[in-house]
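can u do me a favor
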């Protein structure tokens, strides 16, 4: 089973990382892209806590950059993560 929302977030962040000139920011984006891509492929989806950690990491990335393209990509990824999170039972 593939979780489309998380795969979309991963692909969006990977594309942003590819276009990023800042090494640190590129690494942070790629790390989140890889993590969300892995979560998208797992048989059992992540829980609220795991998704919250990724949400916070993405919010930190967005607040640390002046690059409008990166900010837009992170916002799109956050929308995808939040969309999936709404389907997770609990909390």
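np, heres the sequence
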């Amino acid at each position: 089973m593939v979780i489309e929302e998380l795969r979309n977030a991963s692909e969006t962040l990977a594309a942003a990382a590819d276009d990023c000139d800042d090494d640190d920011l590129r690494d942070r984006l790629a790390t989140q892209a890889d993590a969300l891509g892995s979560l998208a492929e797992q048989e059992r989806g992540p829980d609220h806590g795991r998704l919250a950690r990724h949400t916070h990491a993405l919010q930190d990335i967005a607040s640390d950059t002046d690059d409008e393209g990166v900010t837009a990509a992170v916002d799109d990824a956050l929308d995808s993560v939040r969309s999936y999170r709404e389907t997770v039972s609990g909390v």
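The chain has a mean pLDDT of 94. hope that helps!!
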